[in-house]
Design a protein that fits this description.
By secondary structure, this protein is of the alpha+beta class. Helix content is about 15%, strand content about 25%. It has helices at about 65-70, 80-90; strands spanning about 10-15, 25-30, 35-40, 50-55, 55-65. The protein is globular.
Length: about 100
Amino acid sequence: MKQKIDYSIGEIVTSISGRDVNTNYIVIKNVDDDFVYVANGKTKFLEKPKLKRKKHLKSKNQILEVIKEKLVSNKKVYDEEIFSAFRKNNIDFFEKEIECQKKMW
């Protein structure tokens, strides 16, 4: 049975797979049971958020309430607001590198 992963709008998540691994984002919109749109105001903007599979994200168990309220009430949110909210809450845009296995070619 497939495990259902649920992320709230405004929740901080970290990419654990793909070329953007270890990048922190905020969940902008739930698309369906498998996908969400994410942005961080620095590398992925609200005009063109990144579509990510939920299983490729890990929650940081933190929600940016100010951003969440604006997103839920369909008010305009600016990339600068997300950027400053990350800074205000001491959230780095990139996690420290996690030691990974070396690939043997």
